[in-house]
């Protein structure tokens, strides 16, 4: 084997030298590109400006695609009345009992129908289900299983004693999901950004994005291409009228410009999005199970999130993953984070954790770094407890107010600059700003981050605590939707599955909570999220 490889290698080198002597470097590059089949991507319409094969294997990409595969309608929609109509759907309890005890599981059957009441015959509707009790401020999440024939099955665990009711929502019809998918893959430019170029008193603003295909098709407009040296991440701006590319100073969100047809709009309309479906209104009464088992395993990296991952009771989340703790007082939190350097990177949903910790622990003092209120970076310290807490936005793309682009660091670059160790906690979340791009863009970003995580863990002998906050429920439109977030989240979990990292599942926590879905969950949810996080920072 080895000698064969060596021979091939030598032949290749000779070939290369010959080629270099014969052609210009441009020809050499295009020649290599043509002989290697490395340009796999889900659709040919999207034109991401990189080759995914440089980041992950074809095998992994194929398995990720299989993971997020979503059934398509069997034929093209000829009228909006053929779309799944939440008011015509129905859920029923399968063989209900008179009495239940804690630990039992309730099975729910969902039947999808179109606006004429005709049962659907294919899958793909995006439902969310939970069991809850308003009086006890209790709830838990149930995964909706697609039977691919117009019916869906949900298993709901009965986890607290007392009354409980089932609730099933249609978030998007299967037809709406197709719109979201097509928009995601075909129009990466539906959210665009502004680049501010400045020399002296001259400022010029242009359109920027992670993908240049939208402006380059059929035009000869010049672009400024920015390549991050640490990660290879790319960013593009139209060339400013007079200023040079290297005079780029600020970045901001530009605007929304999705190209959505009237039919597509009606499929995504409010009246058919996030609607409770009719069904069994009975209250099941759950009796106390005396032999209630409590979790005994420690909260350590590498645990896989079960369904359900836990439940609310009196608005307090009990995890079924591991032995969590309660951090009611500032002192308890302070003792937990003592002697830690906590670096948080991500979007505004993780900024909520930073803000929560600041209000919870008065001894944590925030420095005024005179940075953007939206994208930071922020830093807080407690010199007595020797705590340093940072939050910063993840790198571009980022929808934010005008901010120096140099303040927006890629997660992988930040990690590369850390030695790590037992006093280091790294937390990140990344999804909400990627819902408008083809899946390849997200997978590429994650693969770069994963490489940095592996290196960090390796050089610190797994002593560094790496925590990944999952996506949460929120938006339901073409720019950001629970279906889009859910897809990204599945990819993220799969790509970090076998690593020595903690995944904090906030999807279930936000999907089943009594408050309406909100991209920025209310304080009561954030408190539970942070308590779960802290349980991993100082496991008992
Ligand atoms: C290139 O890869 C794609 C995606 O796996 C595959 O379908 C295609 O057959 C390959 N083409 C060649 C020439 O190997
Ligand atoms: C259900 O629970 C009630 C109240 O505890 C009890 O009286 C009744 O016998 C139970 N029924 C069955 C079928 O177990
Ligand atoms: C109580 O819960 C345990 C664990 O879920 C189960 O094995 C047991 O059968 C339950 N007991 C009763 C009386 O339902
Ligand atoms: C749909 O599939 C489920 C699971 O395989 C099955 O139980 C059910 O009877 C099927 N329903 C119809 C209408 O085909
Ligand atoms: C909008 O979409 C339609 C249909 O897909 C297409 O024909 C049209 O060219 C698009 N317009 C723009 C500005 O992209
Ligand atoms: C770090 O964790 C990974 C995954 O759990 C494991 O395979 C590896 O052996 C660990 N390395 C050390 C040095 O403990």
TrEMBL record:
Domain NXPE C-terminal: 317-538
InterPro entries: Ig-like_fold, Ig_E-set, NXPE4_C, NXPH/NXPE
UniProt keyword Ribonucleoprotein present: no
Taxonomic superkingdom: Eukaryota
Keyword Transmembrane helix in annotation: yes
Keywords, in A-Z order: Membrane, Transmembrane, Transmembrane helix
GO biological process: nervous system development
Membership in a protein family: Belongs to the NXPE family.
UniProt-recorded name of the protein: NXPE C-terminal domain-containing protein
Source organism of this protein record: Denticeps clupeoides
């Amino acid at each position: 084997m080895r000698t064969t490889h060596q021979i091939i290698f030598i032949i290749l080198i000779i070939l290369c030298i010959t080629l270099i002597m014969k052609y210009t470097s441009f020809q050499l590059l295009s020649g290599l590109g043509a002989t290697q089949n490395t340009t796999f991507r889900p659709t040919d319409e999207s034109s991401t400006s990189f080759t995914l094969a440089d980041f992950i294997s074809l095998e992994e990409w194929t398995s990720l695609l299989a993971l997020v595969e979503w059934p398509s309608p069997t034929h093209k929609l000829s009228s909006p009345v053929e779309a799944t109509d939440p008011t015509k759907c129905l859920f029923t309890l399968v063989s209900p009992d008179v009495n239940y005890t804690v630990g039992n599981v309730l099975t729910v059957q969902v039947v999808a129908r179109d606006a004429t009441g005709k049962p659907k015959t294919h899958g793909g509707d995006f439902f969310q289900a939970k069991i809850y009790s308003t009086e006890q401020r209790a709830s838990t999440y149930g995964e909706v299983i697609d039977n691919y024939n117009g019916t869906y099955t949900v298993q709901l665990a009965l986890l607290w004693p007392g009354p409980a009711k089932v609730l099933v929502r249609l978030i998007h019809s299967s037809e709406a999901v197709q719109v979201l998918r097509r928009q995601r893959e075909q129009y990466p430019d539906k959210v665009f950004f502004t680049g501010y170029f400045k020399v002296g008193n001259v400022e010029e603003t242009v359109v920027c994005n992670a993908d240049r295909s939208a402006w380059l098709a059929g035009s000869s407009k010049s672009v400024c291409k920015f390549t991050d040296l640490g990660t290879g991440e790319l960013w593009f701006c139209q060339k400013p009228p007079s200023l040079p590319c290297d005079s780029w100073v600020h970045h901001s969100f530009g605007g929304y410009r999705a190209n959505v047809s009237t039919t597509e709009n009606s499929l995504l309309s409010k009246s058919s999005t996030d609607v409770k479906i009719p069904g069994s209104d009975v209250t099941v009464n759950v009796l106390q199970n005396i032999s209630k088992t409590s979790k005994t395993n420690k909260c350590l990296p590498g645990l896989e999130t079960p369904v359900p991952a836990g439940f609310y009771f009196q608005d307090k989340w009990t995890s079924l993953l591991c032995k969590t703790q309660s951090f009611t007082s500032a002192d308890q939190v302070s003792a937990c984070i003592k002697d830690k350097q906590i670096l948080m990177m991500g979007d505004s949903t993780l900024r909520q954790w930073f803000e929560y910790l600041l209000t919870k622990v008065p001894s944590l003092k925030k420095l005024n770094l005179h940075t953007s209120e939206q994208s930071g970076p922020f830093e807080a310290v407690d010199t007595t407890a020797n705590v340093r807490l940072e939050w910063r936005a993840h790198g571009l793309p980022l929808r934010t107010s005008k901010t120096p682009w140099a303040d927006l660091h890629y997660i992988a670059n930040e990690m590369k600059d850390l030695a790590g160790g037992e006093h280091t906690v790294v937390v990140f979340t990344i999804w909400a700003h990627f819902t408008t791009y083809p899946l390849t863009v997200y997978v590429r970003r994650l693969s770069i981050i994963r490489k940095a995580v592996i290196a960090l863990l390796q050089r610190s002998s797994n002593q560094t605590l790496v925590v990944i906050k999952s996506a949460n429920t929120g938006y339901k439109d073409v720019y950001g939707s629970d279906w889009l977030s859910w897809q990204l989240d599945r990819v993220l979990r799969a790509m970090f599955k076998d690593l020595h990292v903690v995944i904090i599942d906030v999807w279930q926590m936000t999907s089943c909570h009594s408050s309406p879905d909100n991209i920025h969950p209310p304080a009561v949810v954030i408190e539970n999220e942070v308590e779960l996080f802290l349980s991993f920072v100082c496991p008992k």
